[in-house]
Input
Amino acid sequence: MKCLMLFIALIINFAAYAQKMPPSLEDSKSEPIKYVGEEQTDPNFTHGALRHAVGVHRYQALRSNREHPPEIGSRTGWTYNHQPYLCYWNDKFYFQYLSNQFTEHLPPGRTMLMTSKDGKYWSNPEIIFPEYTLPEVNYTDPESKELYHLPSGTKAIYHHRMGFYVTSDDRLLTFSFLTLPQSIRANPNRGQGLGRLVREVFKDGTYGPIYFIRYNRTTGWNETNTDFPYYKTSPDKNFIKACEEVLANKLVTLQWWEEERSEEGRYNIKPGDWNPEAFNYFRRPDGVIVGLWKKHKNALSIDEGKSWTDFALSNTFKTCGAKMWGQNTDDGRIAIVYNHSLTGSNRFPMVVMTSDDGYEFDNMLCLSGEVPPMRHYGWAKNNGPQYIRGIFEGNGNPPGGHLWNVFSVNKEDMWITRTRLPITGVVKEHVNQDFENAVSESDLEFWNIYSPKWAPVDVVKIPGENNKVLQLLDEEPYDYACAERHFPPSGKGTIEFSIFVKEMGKDMLEFELHNENDERALRLRFDPRLEGLNMDVGRVEPRPVPFDQNKWYDVKISFDCEKSKYDIWLNNKLVHEGIKFNMSTATLERMVFRTGSWRSDVRQYFLGGEAAGPGLDTEDLAGADNKVAQSIIWVDNVKTSGE
Output
């Protein structure tokens, strides 16, 4: 009996250990979340010199294009695209974002919607909330109390922090907030708008009429001076019921406070001078809800958002003004995704941190450090992956057990990431990949994929052969395709792969080996301008080895970090040995295939250079809206070994 009791006690203690609990509400309310890891971002690199998360697939859902607009209902492409939102409903992803013609907070503006079955291939965006012309009216600024005259014909813009809501009877509502442009000295998210719009999305792909679900009556907007009717006038009783379900959910409508700032919402927070923006939340293991707002502001709730602790700062999170996203993940943990940045304007890298208890977060990893050049001019367009959102609680859960996030890049392109769970930065097993069992690149759970619209990464079957390969196709003038694979951190090791350059229409293919800080120890460059395979060793390079297009090459690299040297074989022939590393490192852990030059050094590439892109008074980058000559690269039989 004593043995049984001891066994039961051990099980209870193990369960308590396995489910780490956070401090009490009282002990954590002054700092609701804390980063306890040792990693910090290096501002000299867009990837922050961080270890990369394993199994992150990044897909460009929208590539902005002024000359050849991707949007349905457009004659001229709109190139300011920002504030994305995501849900999963009716076995599809729904991706909503705001769009202006050139720049932030200036008209005209509209709200767009795209859909996807798999998160990779997206429909052309449709206008879900159209341009809106304001009437001639006088309005009082709620902050300054000044009276302004609004001339007839002024265009409104959209600005909001909530995109979707799935009701208890499985209806999908989508929202936007109609507001005044900055051109008339209005602040779009400070309670100066007309009100919040709603419409239903139907399963057949059509949409219901547009209604106001709430007017901003405190600034004089109501049924008499707006074009869309009030939701209560809808002939659809179930739609009215759905709207009232949303209005009754104070945890959901807390996302609305920022634009409304009115008593009508009966919000349960007391913001005072805190100005909390872009609300979202996650749940701790003890049931406490942790609210996250921009600029590392937090509060806690023990009653489903009916009341909150006072706002507090989590100063260990180094935000740069962009959004934070927190989410409970399918593996029972909590993830926070945001720009951990040491500068105010640059919004990179995009990082993820994880926690067991929802209080202490660690293991900071890079989710995306890619910052392509900003192609189109505009005002208030920050560089980098930013304004990250996930799927808000209750808005669906895609199959497969991944973390999904949407974000904008440079405030002009829309992207989505699919991250493998559990989130980790290392792998334990060596690579043995021939791609035969992969239906698509989606099956490559341990690969990191960077796949722009015009530079996709796919698993394809070679025409006329019974062989599947990893394909990097590139016809993008200002970006590239990239595929990365982690292997166990190794001081000595061997890397093998087969490569076939089918077409080389632009630049080159680069292969690199990186360490945990994303430093490059070596690079092989397949460069048609050099008519050979070039091995980069910093200031000194061996003579290029000739290679031919449309021919398979078996590449083998043997490296020794202690000696800072590597040898290379082509088709079982040793072509160079004892080549020096580009830097010293104790281990290597990641291989990179990329159809373009490395661009992560902020000092060389970014500041005032190519990535900075055009400003408000300059032209778009030359050729930004047209494809270039195509490159096609095939990779196969990837293997690693080492110690």
Observations:
- The radius of gyration is 26 Å.
- The longest helix spans residues 2-18.
- The CA atoms of residues 251 and 305 lie 5 Å apart.
